[in-house]
Specification:
alpha/beta; 6 strands; single chain; disordered C terminus; 48% helix; 10 helices; 294 residues
Length: 294
């Protein structure tokens, strides 16, 4: 499971004992998303610079974020929103058109590489995620590691970060929903007002964050899942890096998932598919080197 609330839901729906469910938490590239760069290369934090990274879609709350920025800009003329991400279709085209209308306060960067996104985050003060539906958004961890405060819709995945880092992550009550990612039109006005007010409070906080300490807390909250696996199966050597341990733990979980898929395929009567999955899993297991035991 990605977070505690999801683990509880899985336990209830599938009737699985809670101690059989592992919460994996949030992992991210610590070698990319950080503030540990030489001082001349570290961009100065713009106190009223915002970042959104994600798909250009209504379900991500981008139109409401643009409305909030337009409203706030009257009292905060230096406020500026940077948008990273792309999209296709009528929704994305409408959002891009709106961005162009707000070009004095909004910049669209398109798709960025992880390194480019990290650089953008290091220069901003607040990361905003106004989505109406999320799992566990890893971009929140990446933003925190780059020294940003976070404003996000109050969803199970974002609540996970707010519980880990109270005061750094500010949550906005989501609107009443028609479906899993479609809000009721009548509820959007109140949501926009709440989003605007929360963003305003976040950008007015001038004290700097200890990004390295916060990043360590985020990483520590997710590191326990690989330790639980490795303690019982493959104790790591002193020379192993955290990334190598994570990669090998993930590989083991993938193999287990494929074996489970094989069993499901066989139960559904797809015998040939089950044999193919089983053969591929066996090949991967033979090809993957095991962790040396100390």
């Amino acid at each position: 499971a990605l977070h505690g609330l999801q683990a509880e839901e899985i336990a209830q729906r599938l009737n699985i004992p809670a101690d059989r469910i592992t919460v994996v938490g949030a992992g991210y590239r610590e070698d990319i998303f950080h503030t540990q760069v030489p001082a001349p290369e570290l961009p100065a934090k713009a106190n009223r610079s915002l970042v959104y990274a994600g798909k250009l879609s209504n379900a991500k709350g981008v139109p409401e974020l643009l409305d909030a920025v337009e409203s706030l800009a009257w009292d905060m003329p230096e406020l500026h929103l940077h948008i990273a991400g792309g999209g296709a279709g009528e929704e994305a085209n409408a959002i891009i058109g709106r961005i162009h209308q707000l070009s004095s306060h909004v910049t669209w960067h398109g798709q960025l590489s992880p390194a480019q996104l990290a650089e953008l985050l290091r220069g901003a003060s607040v990361f905003v995620l106004p989505s109406f539906y999320e799992g566990l958004p890893l971009v929140v961890a990446e933003a925190i590691a780059c020294g940003c405060r976070v404003v996000a819709t109050d969803l199970p995945g974002t609540r996970y970060f707010a519980e880990q880092l109270p005061g750094v992550v500010k949550l906005v009550q989501p609107p009443a929903m028609e479906s899993i990612d479609r809000p009721r039109a009548a509820a959007l006005r109140a949501f926009r007002e709440n989003l605007s007010n929360t963003v305003a409070r976040a950008v007015q906080q001038t004290e700097s964050l200890d990004a390295a300490r916060l990043a360590a807390r985020v990483a520590a909250s997710s590191a326990h899942f690989e330790a639980r696996i490795d303690r019982t199966e493959h104790p790591p050597t002193q020379s192993q890096s955290r990334f190598e341990q994570l990669k090998q733990a993930t590989s083991r979980w993938i193999r287990r998932g494929m074996i489970a898929a094989c069993g499901l395929a066989a139960w559904l009567g797809c015998g040939q598919l089950a044999l193919c999955v089983l053969a591929w899993t066996g090949f991967r297991q033979r090809a993957s080197p095991r962790v040396a035991e100390s």
